Amino acid sequence: MYHVNYAWCLGGSLIPLAVLGTLTNILLFFPGAEVMDNNVNLTEEVWYFGGILGCGVLMIFPAVSLLNLKNTAGCGGQEDCGKKFTMFNSIIVSGIGLVGALYAFIISVVAINRGPKCFVGNDTWEYPFHDGNYLKDRDLWSNCKEPIHIVPWNLTLFSIQLIISSFQMLLCGIQLVKSILEIICEECQCPET
């Protein structure tokens, strides 16, 4: 019963994180809180949908499944009925969540390291930063002429997405390991006499 209550709390925690991850990705489509005239000028990593797909859509599966775990833990008043199937289901959906969070994490790291795509002058939109050099030298931020405040906008939102995906990886990873150990430990138990 402890495992079911823990899974239910975990599922409830994943939902607000999924909503926040999706929201950060949506806000990245409006750099500096502006609507872009040409979507080609958006930072490439925004189009990989790390927040929408990784932190959001793929996180719905473990969240809903873990919230419903309480309803499927037993049948006919017997707690052991279908327990292995329930734990196997928990392993699968936790794995899906872990993959989604890892995807969002990688996209965020790449985007933070690369920096935003911005207008640098002479009708040129490009990535003016190299290997995260703008993270150490704030004076380089002036290389981006437009959109206004694009560097702190992208840096903040991708950092939030990075933190969200880190929490999601941690939560899904704990649930995955817990479910695997529960199945293994159940197999190891000596039958009662």
Core attributes:
two-stranded antiparallel ribbon, single chain, Transmembrane 4 L six family member 4, mainly alpha, transmembrane, 193 residues
Question: What does this molecule look like?
Answer:
- The structure is a single chain.
- The protein is mainly α.
- The protein has one domain.
- It is 64% helix and 4% strand.
- It has helices at 2-28, 50-67, 69-72, 83-114, 133-136, 150-188, and strands at residues 118-121, 124-126.
- A two-stranded antiparallel sheet has the order 1-2.
- The longest helix is centred in the last third of the chain and has 39 residues, at 150-188.
- The model has no long low-confidence stretch (mean pLDDT 87).
- This is Transmembrane 4 L six family member 4.
β-strand number: 2
Structural class: mainly alpha
Q: How confident is the prediction overall: mean pLDDT?
A: 87
Q: How much helix, percentage-wise, in residues?
A: 55-70%
- Pick out the low-confidence regions: none
Strand order of the largest sheet: 1-2
- Rounded to an integer in angstroms, the radius of gyration calculated over CA atoms is 21 Å
| Strand coverage percent | under 5%
Number of helices: 6
Tell the overall outline.
elongated
Helix-strand string: HHHHEEHH
**Roughly how many Å apart are the termini?**
23 Å
Largest sheet: 2 strands, antiparallel
What number of domains? 1
Keywords: Membrane, Transmembrane, Transmembrane helix
Main location: membrane
Transmembrane segments: 7-30, 46-69, 90-112
Membrane topology: Multi-pass membrane protein
